[in-house]
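Subject: sequence -> structure tokens, single chain

Hey, anyone have a minute? Need the predicted structure for the following. Not urgent.
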Amino acid sequence: MSLGLKRGTVQLESYDKQWDETAVQTIKTLKSILGDDAIDIQHIGSTAIPAIKSKPIIDIAVGVIDFDRIMSYNEQLQQEGIFYRGSDVEHQLLYVMGDMEKDTRTHHIHVVKWNKTEWNNYIHFRDYLNANENAALQYQKLKEELESKYAGDRIAYTSGKQDMIDNILNNVR
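Reply:
Had a minute. Here:
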């Protein structure tokens, strides 16, 4: 199994069932640390969609009520290799896993308010693409086009997907 990419780069790989197994283990670790302060924890993003290629980075959504309570676990999380990266995306705390010395990321852990817009968007997007293979394959085609243009610019790659993501989310609301 290939897992991880240098920060800022894009490389798509075919689905690997071990991504799910890795996500399950990460979720168990998060639950053991966060306890009841994590209302729900789910594997999201393209690594949770078997029909399409993905960057080999596991995305996890952690639904919470109180961001401050989660921040109080930062030291315990860090002991498990889960590092707080900031809250540069509105309404979200970002944690990462990987080889920090080599600037490689294997996991992005998105802490969001449970059952609010960000949480629902992550879950609905994943579920919609898993239920609609044609839409999933269209999304993959866009991702492949963007990868060929922006392999060294993850920000441009991510930005290039946003219109399609918004259109899909508008269909499921």
